[in-house]
Write a structure and sequence with these properties.
Shape: globular
Helix content: 25-40%
Largest sheet: 8 strands, mixed
Number of domains: 1
Distance between the termini: 38 Å
Radius of gyration: 20 Å
Number of strands: 12
Length: about 350
């Protein structure tokens, strides 16, 4: 728990705060996310070996048996884990490394240079800030972020040099993979391939780039980079700079994710849980911290078009209300992130 000599501190940038402290500094009291020992959390690394791996080349194969194998594995991953790693996705390792490098360069700009992008509200197409939602939170998180709308409008900043061009190519390639995953998920449910793409309005859908910077934390076991939560969209793609920190919740335990080389981590998010009526479940995940190194991750959040009302792709009693994605996005981004409480808000 927080030591008696720590005090609550207003921090506008974790990066700047870390650069100004020394190794003996304790974290401010309003950043303590755990009461030692970790509120009964249990990490089970034996489960890491069972994280599903989806071979994208099987999903796009013209060989019917190979394609069917890929569809079966994808459906099982969506139902049992809500999380998987994609390999053989066709996005070059060089492009992935370049977009991560450009992301890091953005965070390395001076506070004055980044000031023009300060978070001015959930619907601002470019917003830079810290924690998750400092106005709503009781506890803050050890993370700086950049959130940018990238589809249907592409709003990436022109700085640093090359960021916009590299991000454009990466976002385009990720959208291509997203479309094929949607089709495969549809088929895994026994539906036509376009069932999920049509339900989400794919083509006019929403894409959000979320860049995360997790500087070294002097007390990494006492704070979090991001709290346990599910994402607001339908699918989230994640890559990182070789520094681990993502944990997913599976069968009541936390699992450290150690991604395969050149793989992309993908998690099912709330909108897919809504349109499949709970058959696919958005996975709880969180970001834990390191005390010596900086972790950079880049998430691509995909959701329906803003005006899209959820359309069930499977029958049965509808478990969720007809809230369009813009309404859901505003609620999710404007409140505390506490588990899946934002999804509970949408239950019928």
């Amino acid at each position: 728990m927080a030591s008696e000599n720590t005090v609550a501190t207003n921090i506008s940038s974790i990066k700047a705060f870390v650069e100004a402290i020394n190794e003996h500094t304790t974290i401010p009291s309003n950043y303590y996310s755990f009461i030692d020992p970790r509120d009964g959390d249990e990490v089970d690394d034996t489960l890491a070996a069972f994280i599903p791996v989806i071979d994208y080349s099987l999903l796009t194969s013209m060989d019917s048996e190979m394609h069917a194998k890929g569809i079966q594995e994808l459906g099982k991953a969506c139902k049992e884990w809500g999380f998987f790693m994609v390999i053989n996705h066709g996005i070059s390792e060089n492009l992935m490394e370049s977009v991560l490098a450009a992301t890091r360069q953005f965070f390395e700009m001076t506070d004055e240079e980044k000031q023009q992008f300060s978070d001015k509200g959930v619907l601002c197409p470019i917003r830079h800030g810290t924690s998750m939602n400092t106005k709503a939170e009781d506890v803050h998180f050890w993370r700086d972020y950049l959130k940018v709308f990238t589809h249907p409008q592409f709003c990436i900043p022109n700085v640093p040099a090359g960021f916009r061009e590299t991000a454009f190519e990466y976002c385009k390639r990720v959208r291509e993979v997203t479309g094929e995953l949607y089709k495969g998920m549809s088929e895994s449910l026994g539906l036509e391939a376009n069932a999920i793409p049509n339900a989400l309005g794919f083509g006019t859908d929403f894409q959000l780039l979320v860049a995360n910077l997790y500087p070294p934390c002097p007390q990494p076991d006492a704070a979090l980079g991001q709290p346990p939560h599910s994402d607001n969209g339908s699918l989230t793609f994640l890559i990182q700079n070789g520094i681990g920190g993502l944990q997913v919740h599976h069968k009541g335990k936390w699992v450290n994710v150690n991604p395969l080389s050149n793989s992309i981590m993908v998690n099912i998010s709330d909108q897919l849980e809504i349109i499949t009526n709970g058959i696919f479940k958005g996975v709880l995940h969180r970001a834990v911290l390191k005390n010596q190194v900086t972790r950079v991750s880049l998430a691509m959040v995909h959701g329906p078009s803003f005006d899209k009302l959820p359309e069930l792709v499977k029958g049965g009693k509808q478990e969720f209300e007809g809230m369009n994605y813009k309404q859901y996005f505003l609620h999710h981004q404007g409140n505390k992130l506490v588990g899946k409480t934002n999804l509970d808000h949408a239950r019928a």
